[in-house]
Design goal:
Residues 1-40 are annotated as: Disordered. The protein is an alpha+beta fold.
Length: 686
């Protein structure tokens, strides 16, 4: 690495004209010294950059100690040079004590590299001469005695250094994750927790859930009805297996006005009237009770009062399963075709692992509805690409309708039913494309978030004490496009969400988080950026020297300090820093100044402000008539997606024109502190 600093011109000796007693006379005053932590090391023998950083860390430690002993005043660099001479002469008892400590440090970091009288070692003496102005400048910035105690509350760059330097230390070949430093371990754990959630959310956007489900309670009488809970009247089943056979009626759950013996007989009649259920193998229907033990009725043999359209199940399933299959096409709908009624009877009903055979090219999945009839066992396990969702319907089987929908290529199985009758309706799901399809939005979300494959991952992140331990705001850019600036669209949320967006919203809501959908303006507009900075105050110094100076790591923590010297020498510019973060997928807690966001307090329709940038700054124009939060400290995940026109204004360049500000939709989740999340987990049975 090259630099304009004078002490870099000669590899073998101190700079020409260097005055160790009065360095100011050598042109090394604070006005001329640049990038104090970036002074390239003078090559010592065959040292590489790691060894040189360790060597300089030891020398800087010594100079920092001398600074304390001599109480160097700001603007009086010569006092440090005089203390260096005093150290060489060894007349002072306190300075004599520094020699063995210096040698211990050198031997700790560079075993067997130095021997004999340390004050007579030319490499050490020459290095000290070169490092005096560096340490002097660092002392002026109050960096010498810093410990790695985490980023300052207000420093933009200090918050950015945290994940970068933690990752750098973690991946040094010779480093052992720095077990001796609990703060670094803590920061690494926090970064790992944050990155894990970010990867989970990114994975959800790329491949949303392969399965979803829900439940509908049975209201036995109107007095017990709860308008806040999705409910259904009891389900009536009628069946007749053929001419000459009696017709039967059965109400589920078992009605209270029917004797228990009669009810049991009705269930028994249903199970006995069913034919053995087969399964597809090699293009043929096969009967094998060891593989599948169940009964079935075909659609022409039974009727049911249960109707999917009464509960908007298909509309909800569309928003989970279709976006993955048709990411760029919103003109598809689901059609459900009743396929079978199945009865799995205890104690031996079972269906081993299998993948359904699609009935046509348009079939994309299956929907299974479990009717209210008490049973034990019989879990439905659905798997896809290494992920698994377990539907345990037995606990609420007595008085609840439960359902699950999944893709055709999902492997699934039904565990052994140990008691009772597990009665299900199975529908084949087909993707259709009607000639005219408007914006299809269910009026109610009936999906159970616990049925989604990503539920466990998001829950685990919230139950990780290292993730936003003190709480915070999580911003997640929506992965699907929405007309969020259209008139009346806010009334359709959150039901209009699709795919991963619906999953994230529903799961966070289920876990007790306060979640909202808000427009977000990315302040890449030059004028908006300028006014944003003016409103909030500029970030800390944007040059690389101030970036490095924002770190609280000083020579007193010598093991971390040499790593930071190495870090500063390998990252030669802010461009290198951001490229390093991008290459290694390091999440920077605060984004670069050009990646700030303003968050609307509400979703509002597109508007023309009628104001111009000559008379008003951009923030004033944005705020006119609507409220926006200029929030800092939001932990952002994902990338801004589809942009909609938020408002227009009169812009002036060489001539008047219309300027446009765009916004994206984002999910904003308020994450409470970890101890509150623990309480929520216990209260809500996560």
């Amino acid at each position: 690495m090259t630099s304009a600093t004078p002490e870099c011109r000669d590899e073998g000796s101190a700079p020409q004209g260097f005055d160790t007693k009065n360095p100011e006379k050598s042109g090394l005053s604070s006005e001329n010294t640049q990038r104090p932590l970036l002074v390239p090391p003078k090559h010592v023998a065959n040292f590489g950059d790691i060894e040189e950083s360790k060597f300089d860390a030891c020398v800087d430690w010594l100079l920092a100690q001398l600074t304390q002993l001599t109480e160097v005043n700001q603007g009086n660099q010569s006092r440090l040079s005089l203390s260096f001479e005093a150290f060489r002469s060894s007349n002072d008892e306190e300075m004599r004590r520094l020699k063995p400590q210096l040698l211990d440090n050198l031997n700790m970091l560079l075993p067997n590299a130095f021997e004999g009288e340390i004050t007579e070692n030319e490499d050490v003496l020459e290095r000290m001469k070169l490092r005096i102005p560096v340490v002097y400048e660092a002392d002026k910035l109050n960096m010498l005695q810093g410990e790695y105690i985490g980023p300052s509350a207000n420093g933009y760059y200090s918050r950015m250094i945290e994940p970068l330097f933690a990752y750098f230390c973690e991946n040094l070949d010779e480093d052992k994750r720095n077990e001796e430093s609990p703060e670094i371990s803590k920061r690494l754990a926090q970064r790992t927790a944050r990155d894990k959630l970010a990867k989970t959310i990114a994975g959800m956007s790329e491949s949303a859930s392969f399965v979803c489900g829900g439940l509908i309670t049975i209201q036995v009488n109107e007095a017990s009805r709860d308008d806040q809970v999705l409910s259904s009247s009891p389900v009536r089943l009628g069946w007749c297996i053929g001419e000459g056979h009696p017709a039967h009626l059965l109400t589920l759950p078992l009605c209270h006005d029917i004797s228990s013996e009669s009810a049991i007989e009705g269930l028994s009649d249903l199970a006995q009237d069913c034919e053995p259920a087969s399964f597809g193998k090699g293009g043929k229907d096969v009967l094998d009770p060891e593989y599948r033990k169940a009964g079935k009725l075909d659609p022409h043999q039974f009727t049911s009062s249960f109707n999917l359209s009464d509960f908007q199940i298909l509309e909800n399933v569309e928003h989970i399963l279709l976006p993955k299959l048709f990411p760029d096409d919103n003109n598809h709908k689901l059609k459900a075709e009743l396929y079978k009624l199945n009865v799995y009877s205890g104690p031996s009903g079972i269906f081993l692992k299998h993948v359904d055979t699609p009935r046509s090219a348009d079939q994309i999945g299956s929907l299974v509805v479990c009717l209210p009839s008490h049973f034990t066992g019989g879990n439905l396990i659905v798997r896809h690409h290494g992920k698994e969702v377990d539907f345990d319907w037995s606990q609420k089987s007595k008085n609840t309708i439960q359902w699950a929908a999944f893709y055709s290529d999902c492997e699934h199985e039904i565990k052994t039913i140990t008691a009772g009758q597990r009665i299900t309706l199975t529908y084949n799901l087909y993707a259709t494309r009607p000639k005219a399809v408007g914006l299809s939005v269910p009026t109610e979300i009936v999906i159970d978030p616990k049925s989604l494959s990503s539920y466990a991952c998001l829950k685990d992140s919230l139950m990780n004490s290292q993730f936003l331990n003190m709480g915070g705001i999580l911003g997640i850019h929506c992965s699907h496009a929405y007309p969020h600036t259209s008139e009346g669209f806010s009334d359709l949320l959150p039901n209009a969400l699709k795919g991963a967006d619906l999953e994230i919203y529903s799961i966070f809501k289920q876990l007790g988080m306060r979640v909202v959908i808000r427009p977000v303006v990315d302040s890449k507009n030059e004028n908006l950026q300028r006014d944003y900075n003016r409103r909030l105050g500029q970030p800390n110094e944007t040059d690389y020297q101030k970036f490095l100076s924002s770190s609280p790591i000083g020579p007193s923590n010598i093991d971390l300090y040499w790593k930071f010297l190495l870090f500063s020498r390998r990252m030669k510019s802010l461009t290198d820093v951001f490229e390093y973060a991008k290459t290694n997928e390091i999440h920077l807690h605060n984004r670069r100044p050009t990646e700030r966001f303003l968050i609307g307090q509400d979703l509002t329709p597109f508007r023309h402000s009628g104001e111009d940038e000559q008379d008003h700054n951009m923030i004033e124009i944005l705020m006119s008539g609507h409220s926006w939060d200029t929030l800092r400290g939001v932990t952002w995940m994902g990338h801004p997606g589809n942009q909609e026109e938020e408002f227009t204004y009169l812009a002036y360049g060489n001539e008047a024109s219309v300027g446009i500000i765009y916004s994206c939709a984002a999910i904003i989740a308020h994450i409470p502190p970890f101890h509150i999340r623990e309480q929520l987990s216990a209260a809500r049975d996560w």
